[in-house]
Design goal:
Length: 274
């Protein structure tokens, strides 16, 4: 695999975006406007794109952004990494389907990059996990509107609709659990990360509370994100900008908090990198 591009690369990073919804559309727009330094939009792919169009876009791209859902991610990841190209995966809940996330990535030389998305603090949490996971606990509490969670019927107040592991959360709520999976991949793994999902009829922003405890320290992080109006209340507006941040960092040859999944990627319960 070639080294990451440096600030002096002669040509901008060619980015193919798979998905034109809330996240993919916003990322593509940011690239068109020039909001991502030293990066350009090379293609936008949709579910209607032909296999030939997908193949040509992957071949011409320096990096592919997946923002089309779990089913698309499952098909796209091994194809892109097998071509030796990096892929930024927004639908990281796909890894809940695999005991070892590396089984989906395969043996290709391309990397899978999982952006922080709707939450922050991956850098300090990954560092804490590197210091040791014995006795460590991680809880992620997500609060969203009932409609975003598929909860029917009127609610008089907040209601806990799920409590379990990040793996179980991703399987039960595949459209709303990507932040939980990103946290899990960066720290304790999908089966040791506890997730609580709350439906609140009064909520106007998505709320995330992350609680970490271990011998190296205790951390309490809280985020309230505005919603992307095109997402049906499921996606935080910040998510697309998290992807843009990863692209900008890649073009500069450095990186912010990001989980790397690949041939030497995360072993369940250990830190992959952030």
């Amino acid at each position: 695999m070639p080294p990451p591009p440096s600030p002096s690369r002669a040509s901008p990073l060619a980015v193919a975006v798979f998905g034109a919804g809330a996240i993919g559309g916003a990322v593509a727009q940011a690239l068109r406007r020039g909001d991502v330094p030293r990066a350009r939009l090379s293609a936008v792919l949709r579910s209607s794109s032909t296999p030939a169009e997908v193949g040509a876009a992957i071949a011409a791209a320096d990096v592919v952004v997946e923002a089309a859902g779990v089913a698309a991610a499952e098909e796209l990841i091994p194809r892109v990494t097998g071509a030796g190209t990096d892929v930024i995966v927004c639908s990281c809940g796909v890894f809940a389907r695999y005991r070892d996330p590396g089984d989906l990535v395969g043996t290709g030389t391309g990397r899978v990059l999982v952006p922080a998305g709707a939450v922050g603090g991956l850098d300090v949490l990954a560092a804490a996990a590197r210091a040791g996971t014995d006795g460590a606990t991680l809880r992620h509490v997500t609060t969203k509107s009932p409609s975003a969670l598929g909860v029917d019927g009127p609610l008089e107040g907040p209601r806990e609709v799920f409590r379990g592991s990040a793996r179980e959360a991703a399987l039960d709520f595949p459209l709303t659990s990507n932040a939980s999976v990103a946290l899990a991949l960066a720290t304790l793994g999908l089966d040791r990360t506890e997730v609580v999902v709350v439906a609140d009829p009064e909520v106007r922003r998505t709320r995330h509370v992350v609680e970490w405890r271990s011998p190296v320290g205790s951390y309490h992080l809280r985020f309230e994100n505005s919603l992307d109006p095109d997402s049906g209340g499921r996606t935080s507006a910040i998510t697309a900008w998290s992807v843009a941040g990863v692209l900008a960092a890649m073009s500069a040859g450095v990186g912010p908090g990001v989980v790397v999944v690949g041939a030497a990627g995360p072993v369940e319960g250990r830190t992959a990198g952030a």
